[in-house]
Design brief:
Largest sheet: 2 strands, antiparallel
Strand content: 15-25%
Number of strands: 10
Distance between the termini: 56 Å
Number of helices: 5
Shape: globular
Helix content: 25-40%
Length: 214
């Protein structure tokens, strides 16, 4: 006896549209550090320079550096970053600084987003600070609801700073313990709730990209 199953085509997504990736190019670096810190393959600095140089010559000036166990053993990431600076990259995001987490994919996604957004953010911050009197203390809201100095504000911490600011502002303005917030702006509306404490998530998905930041 044969048992057959006829698939219903209407329940399958036959046309999958993947989100556009924020990076333009991806290259490999010859190196490998084991999970215990043992150098399995030494960093080939000459090959790294030869790999990154054509990328810089294409006009790309923002770089995300993500190595397998760089979150715990960052020496190779630091050295690749030094080589990149010598080649003229103006924005260099390294995973052990941006998202020092063991999971490679989430760490990599977050580092790429930081490299993508930080130059834009820096130009905005420079314009704002340039219009203020000398000595003015300028701080920005982060996605985790906390403030940071303008010079330390970076792309991966700005993704959800608007909604976070709405929640923090709602709590500060009301003084109540149980709240529902409705935060409407020019391009989006955010609804939130507060039940006596701020709730933090360690991972979010924004525009199809995973962000590992509080």
């Amino acid at each position: 006896m044969r048992i057959g199953y006829q698939a219903r085509p209407e329940i399958f997504a036959r046309h999958i549209v993947l989100p556009e990736q924020p990076y333009e190019a991806s290259v490999e670096i010859i190196e490998r550090v084991g999970a215990d810190g043992e150098i399995v393959t030494p960093l080939d600095e000459q090959a790294a320079r030869a790999t990154l140089e054509p990328v810089r010559e294409r006009g790309i000036d923002a770089l995300a550096i993500v190595l397998m166990h760089g979150w715990k053993f960052p020496e190779h990431e630091r050295r690749v970053a030094e080589i990149a600076r010598e080649l003229g990259f103006t924005q260099i995001s390294v995973s052990h600084e941006v998202a020092p987490l063991i999971k490679l994919v989430g760490r990599g996604d977050t580092t790429v987003v930081d490299a993508y957004l930080s130059p834009i953010l820096r130009r905005y911050v420079d314009r704002v600070s340039g219009g203020l009197p000398d000595g003015t203390k300028l701080q920005f809201m982060q996605s985790n609801g906390g403030l940071t100095d303008a010079g330390a504000f970076r792309g991966k911490d700005a993704i959800l700073s608007g909604p976070a600011g709405g929640v923090v502002g709602m709590v500060a303005a009301s003084g109540e313990e149980r709240l529902i917030g409705f935060d409407m702006g020019g391009t989006s509306t955010d609804v939130s709730h507060y039940a006596g404490r701020f709730e933090l998530a360690d991972e979010s998905t924004v525009a199809g990209v995973r962000i590992r930041a509080r």
